[in-house]
Amino acid sequence: MENILEVKNLTKQFPGFALDNVSFTLPQGMIMGIIGENGSGKTTTIKSILNIYTNYTGEINIFGLNNKTNDEAIKENIGVVLDDTFFPEILKVADINKIMKGIYKNWDEALFHKYLTDFNLNPKKMIKTLSKGMRKKLEIATALSHHPKLLILDEPTAGLDPIARSEVIDLFQSFIEDASCSILISSHITTDLEHIADYITFINAGKIILSKPSNELLDNYGIVKCNEQEFLSFNKSDYLKYKKNRYAYEVLVPNKQAFKNKYHPEVIDNITLEELMILMIKGEG
Amino acid sequence: MKGLIKKDLLMIKSNFKTLGLVFIIYVILAFQGEMDISFAIPFLGSMIMMSTFSFDNLNKWDAYAITFPNGRKNIVISKYLANFLFVSLLSLIELVILFIIQFTEHKLNPQVYFTIYTMFFATILFQDIIYPIIFRFGIEKARIAIFAVIFSLVIILIGLVKLFSFKFLASLLSIFENHIFLSLTLFLIILTLVSYKISKKIYLKKEF
Fold first, then answer.
1. Other beta carbons within 10 Å of A164
2. Could you tell me if B93 lies within 8 Å of chain A, comparing CB atoms?
3. Is any Cβ of chain A less than 8 angstroms from the Cβ of B14?
């Protein structure tokens, strides 16, 4: 399978924070979710991929091309939703179409208007009059209307109500039906990623702590719930992290089945991405 | 790049009413021959165009624009071109209005056309000085620089007059008298190119 995105040893220094040797690959036709707490380096990674940040080391290839030397050709095929940047608010929704026609060779006016209709966006409205959710939908419509091959989305579902989130997730899933298209998506709403992501990359304090196919992660990782006596019987190499609650321990194990066979614990639950994040960041061990 | 220029022009659309009002006042005053506000129009246009930087800054537009397939260089060019086109358009409208007034009053005076060109020149000169500062420090900090630039220019002019006297400066300018239009245009082109090169260098390295 061809890789649509390759990030190799990406390092970026800031005063008090560094993105440290971040590496991952996104195969064609797949969705990769990036998770991590605020300030962990998700947006820095995305901004480096898009050359919004320039002063970094490492190598980034998109569609097999170096992102620095082929910037314009690559961006013709990328659709982007960023967390807090968009068109100036004094423009009207319809103005976006007029502007984008002069920017993307493949800009599809009819498709943009179809999204506006589907999302109930009034072309005559000024961007500043839109609610946060409607504005996000407009950003997504704009990102999709030039038939990109790769979507790079930083918190695309933030501010959307559950119905709108479900609509947007469906839209991403239909986008990926074309096997040549891929999505890199960072989100705090980990349940969204559980539904759509084929790969999960977890960044913490500027470092990748795991990057795996999501089914491997969700099928193999588990949480053992036990008392102190049981916990003390576990070998440290068989679990990753633990959290001591008031009455019990929660122990993160990388291989549920192997752990079950070795220790026969009473309760071993499937893990959610949220639990994984909390235990990996806040857990001990 | 066409899209980027269009974006700036669409952004100033809301100021068209204000501009229309200024033009009406201008026409009334020009017909009465009481006051010449021709100097204000291209400059006002340039200031309106400069407000696009504020809106860009407010919505962190630059980071978004960099994700488009236009390249950073064209983002800079588009800012210069949008301002040039807008100021040129305003100067042209002014020229037409003035010509109509003079034609109807049978008082054709070529000197006033040169005044319009001088104001066009001053406005672009202002852009050439201020745009690299905006690209380097952002519009908010550049506002202070705008006043500093105007103040410095006035001080320099007063200083020159004090040092060399008006007559000497006038005689210096008279060297170019026969080719003043050409000399000013050439100077403006060179200055704009230098200004653009500096802005481009700043913008290519800038992180948003």
1. 17
2. no
3. yes
- Using the beta-carbon criterion (under 8 Å), do B67 and A82 form an inter-chain contact? yes
Run of H or E residues at B13: none
* Structural domains of chain A sorted by starting position, each given as residue range(s) with its CATH number in brackets: 3-213 (3.40.50.300), 221-282 (no CATH)
Q: Which of A71, A87, A140 has the highest number of chain B CBs within 10 A, making it the mutation to test binding with B?
A: A87
pLDDT tens digit string along A130-183? 988 889 999 999 999 999 999 999 999 887 888 888 888 988 998 998 888 999
Q: Per residue, what are the HEC states of A138-194?
A: HHHHHHHCCCCCEEEEECCCCCCCHHHHHHHHHHHHHHCCCCCCEEEEECCCHHHHH
**Residue ranges per structural domain of chain B:** 2-205
Is residue B96 within 8 angstroms of chain A, CB to CB?
A: no
Tens-place pLDDT, residues A252-284: 999 999 999 999 988 899 999 999 999 999 898
Is the complex ipTM higher than 0.95?
no
User: Which chain B residues have a beta carbon less than 8 Å from that of A75?
Assistant: 67-69
Nearest to B6 among A55, A102, A152 (CB): A102
